[in-house]
């Protein structure tokens, strides 16, 4: 998911991550709970890791400025929030993909 998500994010819009997570859960026939957890961790690592790399490359200047716009949020907290958004998007996508099979899969 990390490799596919990184390629998808480079070439497509932000919503490619939940679509990819749904396809992975559907193809690998993941049950809902493991799909939700795997999607969450994959999205957190992908978006949080990428945000951390970008933050480190510009010495936190951009995240500090963006954080000021949102009421003084610090740069590291903004990176964490970005990772959490990616985690939620991917988790919901993977969960949807696992439920799309139609069997209960419990």
Automatic annotation (TrEMBL):
Keywords: Membrane, Transmembrane, Transmembrane helix. The chain crosses the membrane at residues 6-28, 35-53, 73-95. This is Uncharacterized protein. It comes from Phaeodactylibacter xiamenensis. The lineage of its organism: Bacteria, Pseudomonadati, Bacteroidota, Saprospiria, Saprospirales.
